[in-house]
Amino acid sequence: MSKVPRNFRLLEELEKGEKGFGPESCSYGLADSDDITMTKWNGTILGPPHSNHENRIYSLSIECGPNYPDSPPKVTFISKINLPCVNPTTGEVQTDFHTLRGWKRAYTMETLLLDLRKEMATPANKKLRQPKEGETF
Amino acid sequence: MSSGGENDHFYSFDEGDSSSIELYESQNTSEFTIHGLVFPKLTSVTSQESEFDINEDEDGVDTIYDGMLDTPITKNSKRILCEGSVPNLNYECLTTKGIFERMLQRVDHLQPVFAIPSADILILLQHYDWNEERLLEVWTEKMDNLLVELGLSITANVKKDNDHNSHFREVEFKNDFTCIICCDNKNTETFALECGHEYCISCYRHYIKDKLHEGNIISCMDCPLALKNDDIDKVMGHPSSSKLMDSSIKSFVQKHNRNYKWCPFADCKSIVHLRDTSSLPEYTRLHYSPFVKCNSFHRFCFNCGFEVHAPADCKITSAWVKKARKESENLNWVLSHTKECPKCSVNIEKNGGCNHMVCSSCKYEFCWICEGPWAPHGKNFFQCTMYKNTEDSKSKNAEDANKTLKKYAFYYRLFNEHEVSAKLDWNLGQTVGTKVHALQERMGISWIDGQFLSESLKVLNEGRTVLKWSFAVAFYSDASHNLTKIFVDNQMLLATAVEFLSELLQIKNPEVIMKRRPEFYNKAGYVENRTIALMECGRELLCKGICKVVE
Amino acid sequence: MASLPKRIIKETEKLVSDPVPGITAEPHDDNLRYFQVTIEGPEQSPYEDGIFELELYLPDDYPMEAPKVRFLTKIYHPNIDRLGRICLDVLKTNWSPALQIRTVLLSIQALLASPNPNDPLANDVAEDWIKNEVGAKAKAREWTKLYAKKKPE
């Protein structure tokens, strides 16, 4: 298998997102549809059921730098959330979050969003007190 | 899909009733849920039936194929749903191969008109999606130009100064051949059409293989000259053109989907052809559904392509399925096979469709659905079908929504229980074959006399399906209406009947089976009647607008 | 990385030794399937005097599968969208393994010379093109000046 270059890889992800092939619990798209570098993306995560996140929709911003997908993207929660892997003042997902720390080239933005959603549902995190809905960082 | 983790908390359906239903979830979502339209279990079971056949028309398959090409034998839709005012549906069951064979006959028929080789006419038809009229129209207009366009005219497509001395349309072995596709220089087999565009066999195979599933005419890699089926088979080294024809017929079916429908069952390759669709609106108007049965005995709705869903009509069905899909994220409670005995907490496995459970350890008898004691069910069967719409004094909007969700959850769970039970009944069906066998061996009963078992199983299954879908109807019905109450009573009666029959079918001892044979007849007949009654009652709810989809 | 197929090596060599006028294509050192491409705007088109940058990637299945190509320079064209994606038959259904990188790039150059607003990828641009061709071409010319590299005199 050859290495798909960054831009074509991002185009693949964009098309998957646009056509809605991905899971219903997460979505993502380009923040600026004019941005030929495809750097800034928006993501949403539907809070997992049976947790304090149930029925909430979390917005995130994702930044895919020039070395994506060899290096992980930078992910920041826009909606306020209380999670150990999220910086409580900036909303940024800490780089030691397992998916970012063990980043592989095959991972996509979807992988990342789904893993964050799983993180919200872990026994340790699902009962964490959450800020009022609608607040942002 | 699963949110993962530990889904072991319970949601109690609490409306002040002590015997309320507990809603719980498990991770076992893959097989029985309706999101994703899967019925793989049902199919795989049917296909495994080798030693016995639960269906009546044994020789139906043969007759249909024998007579198919001239005057197709038509099948009539099942009695139950066609009584009264809707006309019978005349349909036939085909396969892509069967349709292709018909097309071949048309080619022979058309040959004198075109006066070109049959293989070429086949390509013309393929290009025009097997639409003969359209082809004839274009043909009269363009004649030879059409052949040029579609790469069938060799003279027009081949360069004059072609000094190539290959044998065209034959695989040849060449030493030291340079293929311009892979740029490799090697001793290899090659292939070329009259155009002389010659490529190594492995490139040619790769090229054709990628295109077989598209169903379009495959042409030379460098010019419009068409590869005929023979050429494709020669290059591939085995009959691969059938795959191409199959894809092409598939697109034909797709384009004529008003008259042709794929059987929706997983891995079933049948196509049901309904010539005259004029009666379909009448079905819809009267809240009947045009159920058909393919040659593999899968029954489905010709209108919405879903499994048989009476008493629900297509509208209720689609609303219900959509809702199930939407809610599956939030209400991920699909049912596991094991439950703890409510008394002694020993794990009990449900191995038949019957909901009357007896704990193997403490002998406690309980109902699988509500986990309450079985005794009250004996008289007042299936309390569990009753959704108790108790008034809540402080009902606010949010609580209303929550209540709808709970109401939905309640019915969804019942729906699902019966789906799971239906699946287990099929497992039971596996053993029925063995039982029939045992009857023959040990009791000297003739095969035909043993058929009451298979018949009963079939009745049980149809009853179960109707019961299952009746919960979708119940969910969308006005609970305060009298007719809805009658409907619920009917549900209970059918549920009782189904449980009895399911219990009978679990008997293993051949002697006992034969002794209780009249009971089989009685119960099966009763289930059949109750099934029809429930369907009719559900249809009445729909016709009177008591059951309707409210957004 | 797996060894490069002979076909790709040959095409690359030929692109260097026998370049197409007005077109350059060079593989990246770290990924020989990934090309940096430039195309000069055709004369007498709104894109003339501009040099447009593109990127091209040969997927694993090349030449059975078409190359993937995208404009990196912003361009106002009914068959090219805002992300530089191109709507061109030879890149999709009409691809044939007998075509090559150079033929694809020539087709793209031809697309610049004759846009096809009836088969649009960028709907707003196509609409503009059909309703007001003169205005649309003026805008294309303006964008060429703004975003494309200038052709050396």
Automatic annotation (TrEMBL), chain A:
Domain named UBC core: residues: 5-137
Organism of derivation: Saccharomyces mikatae IFO 1815
Pfam family, one: UQ_con
UniProt cross-references to Gene3D superfamilies, sorted A to Z: Ubiquitin Conjugating Enzyme
Protein keywords: Ubl conjugation pathway
Name of protein: UBC core domain-containing protein
Keyword Signal appears in the UniProt entry: no
Annotated CDD domains: UEV_UBE2V
InterPro entries attached to this UniProt entry: UBC, UBQ-conjugating_enzyme/RWD
Annotated GO biological process: DNA damage tolerance
Coiled coil regions in record: none
UniProt superkingdom: Eukaryota
From TrEMBL, chain B:
Annotated CDD domains: BRcat_RBR_ANKIB1, Rcat_RBR_HHARI-like
Pfam families reported in the protein's UniProt record: IBR, IBR_1, UBA_ARI1, zf-C3HC4
Gene3D superfamilies documented for this protein: 1.20.120.1750, Zinc/RING finger domain, C3HC4 (zinc finger)
A GO MF label: zinc ion binding
Keywords: Metal-binding, Repeat, Transferase, Ubl conjugation pathway, Zinc, Zinc-finger
Gene Ontology terms: biological process: protein ubiquitination
Name of the top EC class for this enzyme: transferase
Domain RING-type per the UniProt entry, residue ranges: 175-388, 179-223
Substrates-to-products reaction catalysed: [E2 ubiquitin-conjugating enzyme]-S-ubiquitinyl-L-cysteine + [acceptor protein]-L-lysine = [E2 ubiquitin-conjugating enzyme]-L-cysteine + [acceptor protein]-N(6)-ubiquitinyl-L-lysine
EC number(s) reported in the record: 2.3.2.31
PANTHER family, A to Z: RBR FAMILY RING FINGER AND IBR DOMAIN-CONTAINING
Protein name (record): RBR-type E3 ubiquitin transferase
Organism of provenance: Saccharomyces mikatae IFO 1815
Taxonomic path: Eukaryota, Fungi, Dikarya, Ascomycota, Saccharomycotina
UniProtKB/TrEMBL annotation, chain C:
Residue intervals passing through the bilayer: none
Matching SUPFAM superfamilies: UBC-like
Keyword presence, Transferase: yes
Presence of keyword Amino-acid biosynthesis: no
InterPro entries: UBC (IPR000608), UBQ-conjugating_AS (IPR023313), UBQ-conjugating_enzyme/RWD (IPR016135)
Residues annotated as the enzyme's active site: C87 (glycyl thioester intermediate)
E.C. designation(s): 2.3.2.23
The protein's enzyme class: transferase
Pfam family, one: UQ_con
Keywords: ATP-binding, Nucleotide-binding, Transferase, Ubl conjugation pathway
Location of the UBC core domain: 3-149
GO molecular function: ATP binding; ubiquitin conjugating enzyme activity
Family membership noted in the UniProt record: Belongs to the ubiquitin-conjugating enzyme family.
Name of the protein in question: E2 ubiquitin-conjugating enzyme
Species this protein is from: Saccharomyces mikatae IFO 1815
Gene behind this protein: SMKI04G3150
